[in-house]
Write a structure and sequence with these properties.
globular, alpha/beta, nine-stranded mixed β-sheet, about 25% helix, DHBP synthase
Length: about 190
Amino acid sequence: MNPPPALEDAVAALRRGGVIAYPTEAVWGLGCDPFNEAAVMRLLASKQRDVGKGLILIAGALQQLHGLLDWDALPAARRAAVVASWPGPSTWIVPATPRVPRWITGDHDGVAVRVSAHPLVVALTAEYGGPLVSTSANPGGRSPAYARGELDPELLARIDALAPGETGGQTAPSTIRDARSGAVLRA
């Protein structure tokens, strides 16, 4: 079965180094190829976000994160807790391998990652063939968009494609936890 044309357009934009908007579990996100520095810098400029803060990677399957996470740096129980929370709206800061670029980790030695159960995210990352940057689709300091109609028009003017669909109905962005300690960093 072929993906819908709007999804094909979003994937084509990603492959060209573009920035897209797409629905996630709770809010609309901005995404791009995490290994394309120019695309990430463009996304950060659109959001008015400092590169030092780091960015979340979102995947539709755990295998898409292969080679990016240093699982050996975590005790077995901590690894099990992370994996047991996926797929779902749980983001974890996991020790990163050297394959993860500094423009993704920012000033940190870990990388924020989530394996989503949102059908569009699963389809988008499968069609693209890997994880994407995932940050809320709003300029810095403004409220995130929970519905397509809430997307900032100025931000929309700076993206290359809009993926089809609706958010998953969660009422808050994903919880962020430290994989080393289990501590909640964002509830």
